[in-house]
Amino acid sequence: MMQTFLTLSLLQLLNCRTGNSKAGPSEMVKLRLANGGSRCAGRVEIHYRGQWGTVYGSYWDLQDAAVVCWELGCGTAVSAPSWAHFGEGSGPIVTLSVKCSGTEAALRDCESAQWDHYSYPHSYDAGAICSGKSELRLVGGMDRCSGRVEVLHGHQWGTLCDLYFDMEDAKVVCEHLQCGTVNSIPGGARFGKGTGAVWKENYRCLGNETRFWFTHCFFMFVLVAVQFSFR
After folding, report:
1. Cβ contact 57:141 at 8 Å
2. Terminal Cα distance for the chain, rounded
3. Range list of H helices, 47-198
4. pTM, rounded to two decimals
5. For 51-86, what is each residue's pLDDT tens digit?
6. CA distance readout (Å), 219 to 152, 165, 173, 195, 201
């Protein structure tokens, strides 16, 4: 017990000294979720510098998991378990003290301790449980939480019309994507014209729904642009 306490205390001290950094821009990075029963749930594993490793789950939270889910095309984050919830991994610890804002397009873009191969215990391995395949996205903005709203219907992405789109509708999209509060809803194809179908379904959002698919929103779909400010 005393040895474990001393090990964790040493790691916390090391976390303070490593500072915040990102993966080297020239380094090839792969990401996967392991031992969760599907590709969209499990222990977060990173292939970095030729070897698969894990993420030490100190300070790991839903915003960090949200970036992992987005990067893997697995929708939104449902939970962010740590403490080796999906079993202890093997290989090195690649990074720790991850601090994503939630808007990053990839885990490598988040602030964290220096990416490397650490010989830390795997008892804190971070995990993620995602909602599954993404059916709603923002395209053409500066990050994953700004841009043109696009909806997947069947196997085809389509766009929405801003004719009736208001703040209440935007709040639901924002909540669905775990992107915080709405900053603005610029129209007129602010983020460029979309391609593919223009959906004809009708919706009317009240603004208090947590998922886009369980709303009663109303649109006459052509194109819409929404920009969010995370938290």
Report:
1. no
2. 39
3. 62-71, 167-176
4. 0.69
5. 999 999 999 999 999 999 989 989 889 999 999 999
6. 15, 7, 13, 18, 7
